[in-house]
Amino acid sequence: MAEFASLKRVEVIRLGLLMVIMTADCLAEERALYLVTMEDEPAAFLGGSNLSHKGHKHSEVSRAHAKRLVNSHDKLLQSTLETGSYTKLHSFKHIVNGFAVHTTPSQASKLRDVEGVRLVEKDRGAKLMTTYTPKFLGLREGVWAQEGGERNAGEGIVIGFVDTGINPTHPSFAFNPFNPFTSNLSRFSGACEAGPHFPASSCNGKIVSARFFSAGAQAATTLNTSVDFLSPYDAVGHGSHVASTAAGNAGVPVVVNGFFYGRASGMAPRAQIAIYKAVYPTVATLTDVISAIDQAVLDGVDILTLSVGPDEPPEDTITFLNLFDIALLFARRAGVLVVQAAGNKGPGPSTVVSFSPWAVGVAASGTDRSYPGCLLLGNGRKVGGLGLSGPSLGNGLFLHKLVLARDAARTNGSFPETPSLIEECQSPQALDPRVVRGSIVICTFSEGFSNGTSSVTAIISTAKALGFAGFVFVANPSYGDFIAEPIPFDIPGLLIPSVADVQVILNYYERHTHRGESKLVRRFRAKAAIGEGRVASFKSQAPTVSRFSSRGPDFIDAKRNPTDVLKPDILAPGQRVWAAWSPISASDPILEGLSFALVSGTSMATPHIAGIAALIKQYNPSWTPSMISSAIDTTATKYDNHGQVIMAEGFSIGSLYPSTPFELGSGLVTPSCAIDPGLVFSSESWGVDEAGYKDYVAFLCSLPGMNPATIKIAIGESCNYSLTHPANLNLPSITISALIGSLSVQRTVRNVRNEPETYLCAVLPPNGTTVSLNPPWFTIAPQGTQELDVQLNVTKAMNDFSFGEIILTGSLGHIVKIPLSVFPISVQKR
């Protein structure tokens, strides 16, 4: 009995400790951001209508309904969550009915069981994903000429940008009183929100609207008031770069560090700009991004540019049904063309972050322009590198002493820093000024650059403080090659990212450097000079798919199971693009003080497509988003400026392989053909506004293993109609992730010309398949439609996707190309 009492006291103690631990856990539960969607229709689609296209988006009915939605959000939170346990950040009410809330996981879990709640998803955060590209893409002689030149190209079209904001004082966004805008923007209703660095006068006619969204950012972290400005002002530079690439004024001089690099022009230089700042130097949240998307569609933008978004696929739902992609679906339903960066996670397969067929996913390429720099060694050999800097003293002909940084370490006194910082030139105190002054100093990639604690900015500071004649930042054999882009240096500097090239330099250096028994250098006899690195060369074979550009195949879940949609959709210049910048440059100190920057990323490719879409919309004002995206895709080219198949960069420097649709989508955009494609992919199943949306719902309902209840919960639509196969979605491409035996796929094309045209059909079948088309030729009436039946059969099972193409050649000169991406699994149906 005593023993039992003792055990009981122990259990009581244990229980007490457990309760203390549980209480501590509850007290320590950290808040997070959650996105919640509700069942009632948002204002844009009240009663099944599309208010943004019917002109009623600001009607009394619409405003009253939006107010009711906000009240319902407040009441739900008050009745479900504990008082003081949450903060509502934003109510979505135009294209999405829902809200963002800052609360704990345990409180958020209560919302999942509430009647009327569809989805509760944790905010995954968001990441940021020219002087020459108009000429490279043929705009000056092509589309611009047809639309009245650069003074008219894009006028009447509003492009919305969800990004880091805009630098309103930049000349790329200046209003020209001698060439005022004459287009009627009565359908557009933005606003100008003033704040730090952004007076109300910033909305000048070129910038027609500017808003900022910060509720998510302010809830997620403590903002840095010195850079996280609560205004539409861009402290990063990224948003300004994107906006000017799409719609910057034509002919703006690009001057960096006193050197003239040419003149910058946006793709649609007369398009007008609507800014929706949702990304801050310190943090970016999907709460703010989705809030911005909702507002942009309400305001009435024609095209929405997203060089920002989730950087990883959702973990607990299919890729198409996360809240970000649902918001894009509803933007498309409202008649807005959504252009989205494919991602910068290449060159591995299945790395795209643009998943859905209702958004145009853009891959990045280089152009034929390069900025070759070089290091001239004392033996006459030249080693190529990268660096937008002037030459060393003597215009690169006067040879300076060449010094390896680790051979110039201070020998007297103590230096507390690690040896890696010495060879990385990160501190003036680490190097002997008598050795390095007036020398070309070799700084080596080492541990600090590997773990992100070192920077090229620190190298430049050291070089200036100690009076280097110039610096060379080189790869380290212990770490391998590194990826480099040209950076504007205000002192002579060069990046040499190839270990093989560095070995040439080090071999020469060691042969001309005399060392004592202790390995200390007694005499530096190696000589070198840095050549001019700011003059462009136009000899490169181009385009080439950039190494960083994310690849397909598209996938349906976090396990990366492939799906029947081609991603990316299209290729555009995105490597080494000159465009506007913000002098604050809060996230990239090496570009501080500059008004232009040479930047790379699919973020830079995306606005090229947005601007070109604006030109197509101006030329064909009645076209729907599906028609515009179809025209862009079917007229793209898969061949470079030498007439060869476009190549793609691999993992190692200099490695290239022939690209496939999973690298470049339909190919490199060809604007002069896209404004007159002949045929577009279009459906007559429903009315114009709803056609594409209904098709997308049917596509979702046809996905293998999809539970109709999941669709109903996610987007509020019943699966009353589904496609016989997901590949039957009427896209300008055909992707089949698992072809077993045979499959018949249908497509519908529309003649957008005002005259009949006869088309002859040809097929290049993917390996392991046969492909036949019915009809093999057809004549299509003006504005008429034609159904095509594509029969695919497996002749040999393959271990991976193989690729082909359907080509429709018209009697009036139109050529329509449809990429085929097929994985032949088995000859026989199982």
Describe the structure.
The protein has 830 residues and is α/β, with parallel strands linked by helices. The protein folds into six domains: 1-26; 31-122, 2-Layer Sandwich (Alpha-Beta Plaits), CATH 3.30.70; 127-176 and 191-362 and 545-636, Peptidase S8/S53 domain (Rossmann fold, 3-Layer(aba) Sandwich), CATH 3.40.50; 373-530, Glucose Oxidase, domain 1, CATH 3.50.30; 683-723, no CATH class; 733-830, Immunoglobulin-like. Helix content is 25%, strand content 24%. It is built from 21 helices and 38 strands. The strands form ten sheets. A seven-stranded parallel beta sheet has the order 7-10-6-11-13-14-25, sandwiched between helices. Helix 8 (238-247) runs parallel beside helix 16 (602-619) and helix 9 packs parallel to helix 10 (323-333).
CATH class of the largest domain: Alpha Beta
Shape category: globular
Q: N- to C-terminal separation? A: 69 Å
What is the number of beta strands? 38
Domain Peptidase S8/S53: 154-642
GO cellular component, one term: extracellular region
Active site: 163, 238, 603
GO molecular function, one term: serine-type endopeptidase activity
